[in-house]
Design brief:
α3 packs across α5, α3 packs parallel to α9 and α7 runs antiparallel to α9. The strands form 4 sheets. This protein has a 4-stranded antiparallel β-sheet, with no helix packed on it. Strands 3-2-12 form a 3-stranded antiparallel β-sheet. It has a 3-stranded antiparallel β-sheet with strand order 5-4-9. β4 and β5 form a beta hairpin. It has 14 helices and 12 strands. The protein is of the alpha+beta class and 411 residues long. Among the domains are: 50 residues; 46 residues, no CATH class. The relative contact order is 0.11.
Length: 411
């Protein structure tokens, strides 16, 4: 069995254990429609829209830090310097939303996000700044079972950091680095980018096909050059040009038309494939072919989007905040929560029905409901309530009928 696994790893059919050295794996895909870089990929609207949707959605969610009691239950919001930093301004240049958008941009595109941690105080116990280092400027090096994070500041200058100085968030991968979604979807992105280039070329060329001038004679080189210059507008230039061909000469198109190569279908499929790559429902990046899902179906789509795509990102971020930014001895004392209730918020009518049930069954107090709605608490609203007309059937059977009363006239 071990031999089979070794052979599979050798031929690239299974993940390999990391070895000492540079962990920035280079994956070369030769059979692509065109070369793909981060900048060129972001010009594909489906890629840009998918990354922006994930980045802006998660960045807009509030972050809270809670203390836990001895049973592991959330007790109260923590009054901690770290959450004040994360909640408002993680560094001198960015507020929370800008910080999280940049972090998610790196994580979603490269599969890795790196944040430099600046500490001060006794034993460097207090974090005063969190600065994102873009993934293309970071090299991860494994040496003697220790990780070195090398920040390439300029072409001639770099700086090394220890594991404790970097908050590294990664997608699934080999345990040291996450796999890059863009890198592993190069073919799909290249097809989409090439399709855009084809449309751009057609529109710039007046949608004229390339072709050849056919004649029965044998023109000389000078005649061919003169004809080529004179008839160039057959395949380019002003759309109103009206050529007059010499006798016994005709124009034959030799390029495929957009319908021949099913250009529109290719673009539509590319949108769906790129959305699939990022785990984003295509309707959420304005796929008009899915417009029939708007209405009652959109709630189910958003719920599935949260459960199967956003939730793994949120869990990953919450746990990495705890393990990278909080001392190990305090892991059992605190818990981070990224609140996704805003995107799952039901309609006003549904919320009123839910709140009524929660109050009447003693699950929440009226003031807890008011705070959830952003309203001021009211006096007397901190009590739990329970309906009294609910009892076991055996107790109800012992009660006298409503119209039967005890006669006390002779007493």
């Amino acid at each position: 069995m071990a031999i089979i696994q070794s052979v599979a790893a050798w031929f690239g059919y299974a993940p390999r254990d990391p070895v000492d050295g540079n962990q920035n794996a280079v994956r070369t895909v030769t059979k692509t429609a065109k070369p793909v870089t981060f900048d060129s990929a972001m010009t594909v609207t489906a890629v840009f829209a998918s990354i922006r949707l994930l980045a802006e959605t998660i960045a807009s969610m509030p972050i809270e830090m809670y203390t836990k009691d001895k049973d592991g239950t959330l007790d109260a919001k923590a009054d901690h310097d770290l959450i004040k930093l994360l909640r408002y301004k993680p560094n001198k240049r960015q507020n929370r939303i800008e910080f999280m958008e940049q972090l998610m941009l790196n994580l979603v595109s490269d599969g890795n996000a790196y944040v430099r941690i600046t500490r001060i105080g006794e034993k460097n116990s207090r974090i005063i700044s969190l600065d994102i280092i873009n993934s293309s400027n970071m090299t991860v090096i494994l040496k003697n079972d220790e990780l070195i994070y090398r920040h390439q500041i300029t072409s001639a200058f770099s700086r090394d950091f220890k594991e404790s100085d970097i908050w590294h968030v990664k997608l699934f991968g080999n345990g040291i680095k996450g796999l890059s979604p863009l890198q592993h979807a190069t073919k799909a992105v290249a097809v989409a980018d090439a399709s855009d280039d084809k449309i751009t070329s057609l529109m710039r060329n007046g949608a004229k096909p390339t072709g050849a001038l056919m004649t029965k004679g044998n023109p000389t080189a000078e005649q061919r050059t003169a004809l080529r210059n004179e008839m160039a507008s057959l395949t380019s230039g002003d759309e109103t040009f009206m050529p007059v061909l010499p006798l016994d000469m005709k124009f034959e198109a030799i390029s495929l038309t957009p319908s021949d190569i099913e250009l529109l279908a290719t673009r539509r499929f590319s949108l769906e494939e790129i959305a699939r790559m990022f785990g984003v429902p295509s309707i959420l990046i304005n796929d008009s072919t899915q417009s029939t899902n708007w209405g009652s179906g959109i709630a189910s789509i958003i719920e599935a989007f949260h459960k199967f795509n956003l939730r793994p990102y949120l869990e990953r971020l919450e746990l990495s905040m705890l393990t990278s930014l909080v001392p190990r001895k305090d892991w059992d004392r605190y818990q981070f929560e990224i609140d996704a209730d805003a995107i799952l918020r039901s309609s006003r009518k549904e919320r009123v029905a839910m709140y009524n049930t929660e109050i009447s069954t003693g699950q929440r107090t009226p003031n807890e409901i008011r705070r959830a709605e952003g309203w001021k608490p009211q006096e007397g609203g901190d009590n739990l309530y329970m309906q009294l007309g609910f009892a076991p059937l055996s107790v109800v059977a012992k009660q006298p009928p409503p119209n039967q009363t005890k006669d006390t006239s002779n007493e």
